């Protein structure tokens, strides 16, 4: 239930995320050494444009990617209605993007 | 659970792993975003949550999440290579290599975490 | 010189449409026996009402494919010795196609999708024109050659789980045909083919799970052909923004 446009969005968002995921895993391995504390994390991220751009891009790309991925799985299992699929894809993408950008704002805004 | 006979080959398993890890990550994302947003709305609750993550059981769950992320990324790279690069019959070994790398990365994470 | 012949335990799907069940038969085992031989033996000796389809018996016509022990096979070229499990064989109609009766499926959806993928030749010359010379060594001709031995048996169509899950999906055989046309220098409708494989049931729905290539009796690789279509449509997407 996807055509060329959704396919391209899915693959382009994946290409954007590949290096970001590697970076994210590296950050996690580094950050959790000696336990996690909010002060320690926020001390590094607050006011940092680099972190805001890194995770802002990541949040937008993952919202697109996850929305299309969930759409395909729903289409192949329980939801055959085209309009319902389109609406749900948009809702999931917008919802994830809003939550993701809110989270990025929360940890990077100074 | 019995795998249907026509699905008993390596690429089907690679597809299955990619789909299952994708669903799991999509379900995890809203929770992840919600907890991070606490930094602004309720910092004390965030610290309480982070303290909870030092629980060994949570550590194992985190290992699982990192594994899912790695498996989905390397599986995805395999797909991108298959679709966008001229490709030969080496795909099966690539699938196996991606799994091995995923294990390597998530285990590294686990060792650092404990 | 054996006194009693070893018997095969054969379960055959019987029924019309969506109704049916397996029926057990015992068939004497022979040397060099194919699954089609077994089915024919049942029809000729045990139950003349058994319906199934075959024509050439030598792997050319693509009409005898069935599910054998859960896997799609061309039955005329599948030896019993290779697929029997402890002397047991399950034979069922192909997956992903409506059953007419017993082992005979309605192949219309399969061929409709062949048409839907614009899988017919689009000529650019008339019979009055001289024949266009094609270099057999050219890269595009070699790509086309890799996919043209398809016999339309629908084994890949039956093996594909994306076909099962998405009724719009054109499927591996039709998309493989589209790929050979795209690489055929004589074909005159490249854009038409690319459009046909870019719709909601097009090549982009393929999840590369590879059952098509794993079971193709002629060892073609539809998964590779479909990856080629994805690449070409992506290229046209960047060139023309659609």
How is this structure best summarized?
Chain C: One of its GO terms (molecular function) is metal ion binding. The complex is a heterotrimer of chains A (110), B (114) and C (242). Chain A is mostly helical and 110 residues long.
What does this structure look like?
The complex is a heterotrimer of chains A (110), B (114) and C (242). By secondary structure, chain A is mainly alpha-helical. Chain A has a single domain (4-108), classed as 3 helical TM bundles of succinate and fumarate reductases (Up-down Bundle). Helices cover 84% and strands 0% of the residues of chain A. Chain A contains 4 helices and no strands. The model of chain A has no long low-confidence stretch (mean pLDDT 90). With 114 residues, chain B is mainly alpha-helical. The radius of gyration of chain B is 18 Å and the shape is elongated. Chain B starts with 9 loop residues before the first helix and ends with a helix. Chain C has 2 domains: 7-105, Beta-grasp domain (Ubiquitin-like (UB roll), Roll); 108-240, Alpha-helical ferredoxin (Fumarate Reductase Iron-sulfur Protein, Chain B, domain 2, Orthogonal Bundle). Chain C has 10 helices and 7 strands. In chain C, the strands form 2 sheets. Chain C has a 5-stranded mixed β-sheet. In chain C, strand 3 and strand 4 form a beta hairpin. In chain C, helix 3 (108-116) packs parallel to helix 7, helix 4 packs antiparallel against helix 7 and helix 7 (172-182) crosses helix 10 (222-240). The longest helix of chain C has 19 residues, at 222-240. The termini of chain C are far apart. The mean pLDDT of chain C is 94. Chain C: Its EC number is 1.3.5.1. Chain C: This is Succinate dehydrogenase iron-sulfur subunit.
